[in-house]
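Morning, I've got a small favour to ask if you have a moment. It would help a lot if you went through both lines with me. Thanks so much in advance, here it is.

***
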Amino acid sequence: MTLHIDYQLKKSQKRKTIAINIKNSEVTVLAPHFVPKSYIDDLIIKKHQWINNKIAEQQLNTDAIKNKKSPLETQSFKLFGEAISIQLLRSNVSSIKFDGKTLFLSAASRVKNLQAHYQKQLKVFLKQSLDSYLDIKLPEVSNYMELSFTNYQIKTYKRRWGSCNSKKELTFNVLLAGAPKWVIDYVIVHEISHLKYLDHSKRFWRLVNSHYSNVTEAESWLKINAMSLDI
């Protein structure tokens, strides 16, 4: 493992702390204007193992994305952590049917772009499934935590599992439908906690941990399995 690491240095008059950013295997150091380069060089050497591990992790993720097959290709996907098979059909009328083990996606004969059609149907099914769960679970957790929200939405995100704004509106990633319910429950508690604290301060995490006991396990599951949930 090499100790020499090339990096780009960006200094700022406003910045008060040093940060190391890694993207596309490139290392960028953000630092206050008064920090000498010799200090940053020493820091990079001390952090070399962490930096190399991050670069290797990003490369693995990039390779995995390139090799990943879609649920339509494998004809299977995850629903609340359970493997579900997909059957792609042609019929007179487009429809979505689910028997508990198999999802039947039918495209009418007039449909031209089958791939896009089936993909849209799958997303509709996942959104409906997650909505059914949230419709029951959100009021239950909200009442228990004594924190109220105005409404919630389900959207497609690439880099977040949920969000909460100052209007007390909650949003959840449709891809959560593929996660086990105990993991979804963590995201629910996390976002409802933001109704009281719109940050990730110590008091926020105390509130989360007081209502959910497996925070580390849930976050680890999401990090490890995020790519497999993508459709």
Q: What stands out?
A: The helical segments are 37-46, 48-67, 71-74, 114-145, 181-193, 202-211, 215-229.
